[in-house]
């Protein structure tokens, strides 16, 4: 199956998409969290951001959830030195609890920005915030960037993301773009996986490898215009 082949490609990667520990540190520096916050990493993947959250918030209670059991196991291994982190299999559309921060790197689009934020509102404390990264496409982006995002029809510029945030009853507190080195590092690792899996790949895996190679090639044509926007949002609080 193609789905199995996709999972095969992305196994044993430190991240499932572009991002850096600095993104987490920046978000935390902009949010006035309690001294011992409750934090959830929704769709935590193999746990890279959980590690940074735990390093930055030693007094926090931190949870990670992911739907894929093998990623849960990888995240547990990555965070096994931290006593304040738990990781479990879970659906980010069914979050229970009250969190001061819900962190979600490159996965909210599975629910939809408005739909996901609406669901999560009931899981936030009074002053809680959501930090999420979402594909963003500048209005003047070159055709190669548009081709890169061709399979994501919901993509928009920053104003469009803000509109989707506001439709859920939130406002944007701050944002930054994730571009450049975060993508280069991710694609360097993905390219290594493609090369290692080529020998002996069956038809389904070969198709997935070809698709991933094309994605990397498109990114290389417009690395400055292909980005995520890291958005900090709160329900009903003052906008920047």
Overall domain count: 1
**Oligomeric state of the chains?**
single chain
Q: Provide the gyration radius in Å.
A: 18 Å
Number of discrete helical segments: 9
CATH superfamily: Vaccinia Virus protein VP39
Strand order of the largest sheet: 3-2-1-4-5-7-6
Largest beta-sheet characterization:
7 strands, mixed
CATH domain class name? Alpha Beta
Order of SSEs? HHEHEHEEHEHHEHHE
DSSP strand content: 15-25%
End-to-end Cα distance, whole Å, is 46 Å
CATH fold assignment? Rossmann fold
Mean pLDDT: 94
Tally of DSSP β-strands: 7
| Molecular shape | globular
> Which CATH-level-2 architecture?
3-Layer(aba) Sandwich
Overview of the structural elements:
The protein has nine helices and seven strands; from the N terminus they run H-H-E-H-E-H-E-E-H-E-H-H-E-H-H-E. It has 240 residues and is of the alpha/beta class. It has one domain: 3-Layer(aba) Sandwich (Rossmann fold). Strands 3-2-1-4-5-7-6 form a seven-stranded mixed β-sheet, sandwiched between helices. Helix 1 crosses helix 9, helix 2 packs across helix 3 and helix 8 runs antiparallel to helix 9. The longest helix is centred in the last third of the chain and has 19 residues. The N and C termini lie far apart (46 Å). The mean pLDDT is 94.
């Amino acid at each position: 199956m193609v789905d199995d082949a996709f999972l095969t490609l992305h196994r044993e990667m430190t991240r499932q998409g572009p991002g850096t520990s600095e993104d987490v540190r920046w978000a935390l520096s902009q949010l006035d969290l309690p001294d011992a916050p409750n934090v959830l990493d929704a769709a935590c993947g193999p746990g890279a951001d959980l590690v940074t959250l735990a390093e930055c918030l030693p007094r926090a209670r931190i949870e990670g959830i992911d739907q894929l059991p093998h990623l849960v196991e990888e995240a547990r291994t990555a965070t096994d030195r931290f006593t304040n982190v738990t990781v479990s299999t879970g659906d980010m559309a069914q979050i229970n609890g009250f969190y001061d921060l819900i962190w979600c790197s490159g996965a909210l689009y599975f629910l939809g920005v408005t739909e996901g934020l609406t669901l999560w509102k009931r899981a936030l404390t009074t002053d809680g915030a959501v930090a999420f990264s979402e594909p963003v496409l500048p209005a003047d982006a070159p055709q190669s960037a548009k081709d890169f995002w061709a399979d994501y029809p919901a993509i928009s510029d920053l104003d469009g993301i803000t509109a989707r945030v506001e439709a859920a009853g939130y406002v944007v507190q701050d944002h930054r773009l994730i571009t450049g080195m975060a993508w280069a590092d991710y694609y360097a690792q993905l390219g290594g996986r493609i090369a290692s899996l080529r020998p002996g790949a069956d038809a389904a895996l070969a198709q997935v490898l070809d698709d991933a190679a094309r994605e990397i090639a498109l990114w290389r044509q417009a690395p400055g215009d292909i980005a995520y926007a890291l958005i900090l949002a709160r329900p009903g609080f003052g906008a920047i």
